[in-house]
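Shall we go through a protein fold together, starting from nothing but its sequence? Please make up or recall a protein chain and show it to me in full. Go ahead whenever you are ready, and we will take it from there.
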Amino acid sequence: MANNRRGELFRDPKNGKVAGVCAGLADYFGWETWLVRIFAVSGVLLGAGWIILIYVAGWFILDKKPVGHVSKTVGTGASDKLQEANKEDDILDESIKVKTRIWQAGEPPKQAFYDIRRKYTKLEGQLRTIEEYVTSPQFTVSREINKL
């Protein structure tokens, strides 16, 4: 799969063998996991021992891949639309976490502000719907019926 835009780099212990660093790198670059593992093992066997240090550093520095995180690889159009619809529905339920350091999980500030704006726009639409109902004659009739 080709990656048009890269997301964040995470460890993926669920799909990994030791700590998920190779699986996380593979997901980040859009490569096959076995290929990244072969490069890492080949490098160690051919004398590049510093790869072990990088792997251990990645183990401690990289965050685990969040449960609901979807990789930003290009997929089919129908599944992309479905994921976008689910994201729109879940936007009110999810919290927005902004990155403070490059190795931490979260969103870049620009994306976080975009998500906050979208969240409040959706909330404003729901509030307008509630206000329309409360100020309608239908609400008054329903309230009077409930008092009986």
Confidence is low (pLDDT under 50) at residues 1-5, 72-82. Residues 78-148 form one domain. The chain has two domains: 1-74, 78-148.
